[in-house]
């Protein structure tokens, strides 16, 4: 292996977390940067995507992806620029996204990297509305949820990356949208900035009543990002033939024991409803289709791409924790540099 005269700053997994992650679950270290081999590219990362799913990858045992081994670089998506290429499809200076890991430099197989146009949209959008969160919202709503114009959509985790795209896409599709989020400020953001029709603060002691008022005629599609007690409340508000889209269950990811299932599941029977989970990677072949449509809506000002950016690689553990503390609004990212910034 040929190494280059550069140092790679990295976060590796130091321990399997119990409950909410701690700084000591990770280790910061430096490693040599190796030169790319035939068919590979070397990427200098600019932005790292911080995702709730990271928490489940840190557990032992198999989920929809292998768990990360102790000592391995934390798995992460991200975006950056090619600094060396051993593949004819990529040139030095190309902007790319891919599974770069929580580190400064990444070697990627060229076939697994995606070239993006950082002149037509900011690089950060490709990790948000024009990337996995946007695709999750798009296919979750339109394919799994079979959304139709004029329907009522309820979405939890509504001020986060996936949730804010869900609500905005549903508005473009002519639906009534109700968002569930933690705290009055996020609720105000949903109605005043993103154009949702109503927002419900799930931290309010009156959440059940507030949800009943906001969804007084029932819900056709419930897009569930959080699971737990909120899923049960949503199940009580279904309309006949409702669809519940299981995107994630962020309220359960720090559980030390297996969480309980929904108590209200008989609502599915009563309302002839359907609940279906999905993993966005199954739609990979159709990402270009979703990106083209989302790009058009973004350029037309019909949807917004809002990111919450921590300003150094060192902030990674606290940035991940922010997702579970509800401290982020929009897509959580870690920035490594604006071209030439410090790590
Ligand atoms: N199925 C797929 O293929 C796929 C792909 C990508 C993401 N996802 C899922 O989509 C969901 C959202 O991901 P994201 O990246 O967009 O994250 P995000 O919504 O930007 O961040 C997580 C949000 O979850 C909320 N939250 C945290 N703890 C909570 C709790 N105990 N109860 C209720 N809400 C809680 C917080 O908002 P509040 O302040 O409102 O609490 C926080 O901002 C996750 O479940 C993720 O796993 C699924």
Textual characterization of the structure:
The protein has 343 residues and is of the alpha/beta class. The chain is 24% helix and 27% strand. It has helices at 53-57, 132-144, 161-172, 184-193, 207-214, 228-235, 266-270, 287-299, 316-325; strands at residues 3-13, 26-34, 40-49, 78-85, 95-98, 105-109, 114-115, 152-156, 176-181, 198-201, 219-224, 238-246, 274-277, 307-310, 331-335. The strands form three sheets. Strands 3, 4, 5, 6, 7, 14 and 15 form a seven-stranded mixed beta sheet that branches. Strands 10-9-8-11-12-13 form a six-stranded parallel beta sheet, sandwiched between helices. Strands 1-2 form a two-stranded antiparallel sheet. β9 (176-181), α4 and β10 form a beta-alpha-beta unit. α2 crosses α3. The model is unreliable at 339-343 (pLDDT under 50). It binds NADP nicotinamide-adenine-dinucleotide phosphate.
Calculate the mean pLDDT score and round it.
Answer: 95
User: Whole-number radius of gyration?
Assistant: 20 Å
Order of helices and strands: EEEHEEEEHEHEHEHEHEHEHEHE
The biggest beta sheet reads:
7 strands, mixed
Instruction: Say which molecules are bound, naming each kind only once.
Output: NADP nicotinamide-adenine-dinucleotide phosphate
Oligomer: single chain
Regions with pLDDT < 50 over 5+ consecutive residues?
339-343
* Approximate shape: globular
- Note the total helix count: 9
Distance between the termini: 25 Å
Helix content: 10-25%
What percent of residues are in strands? 25-35%
Find the count of extended strands (DSSP E, 2+ residues).
15
User: Structural class of the secondary elements?
Assistant: alpha/beta
């Amino acid at each position: 292996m040929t190494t280059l005269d550069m140092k790679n700053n990295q976060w590796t997994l130091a321990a399997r977390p119990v409950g909410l992650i701690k700084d000591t679950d990770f280790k910061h270290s430096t490693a040599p940067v190796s030169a790319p081999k035939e068919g590979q590219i070397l990427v200098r990362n600019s932005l790292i995507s911080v995702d709730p799913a990271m928490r489940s990858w840190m557990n032992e045992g198999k989920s929809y992806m292998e768990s990360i081994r102790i000592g391995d670089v934390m798995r992460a998506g991200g975006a950056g620029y090619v600094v060396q290429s051993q593949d004819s499809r990529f040139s030095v200076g190309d902007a790319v996204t891919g599974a770069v890991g929580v580190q400064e430099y990444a070697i990627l197989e060229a076939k697994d990297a995606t070239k993006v146009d950082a002149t037509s949209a900011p690089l950060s959008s490709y990790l948000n509305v024009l990337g996995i969160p946007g695709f999750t919202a798009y296919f979750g709503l339109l394919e799994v949820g079979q959304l139709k114009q004029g329907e009522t959509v309820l979405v939890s985790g509504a001020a986060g990356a996936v949730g804010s795209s869900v609500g905005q896409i549903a508005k473009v599709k002519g639906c009534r949208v109700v968002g569930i989020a933690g705290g009055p400020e996020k609720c105000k953001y949903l109605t005043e900035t993103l154009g949702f029709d109503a927002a419900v603060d799930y931290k309010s002691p009156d959440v059940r009543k507030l949800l009943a008022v906001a969804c007084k005629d029932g819900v056709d599609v419930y897009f569930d990002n959080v699971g737990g007690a909120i899923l049960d409340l949503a199940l009580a508000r279904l309309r006949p033939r409702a669809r519940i889209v299981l995107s994630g269950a962020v309220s359960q990811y720090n559980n030390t024991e297996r969480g309980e299932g929904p108590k209200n599941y008989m609502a599915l029977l009563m309302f002839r409803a359907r609940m279906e989970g999905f993993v966005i990677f199954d739609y990979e072949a159709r990402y270009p289709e979703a990106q083209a449509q989302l790009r058009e809506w973004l350029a037309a000002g019909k949807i917004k791409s809002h990111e919450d950016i921590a300003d150094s690689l060192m902030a990674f553990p606290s940035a991940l924790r922010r997702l579970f503390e509800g401290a982020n609004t929009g897509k959580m990212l870690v920035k490594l540099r604006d071209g030439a910034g410090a790590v």
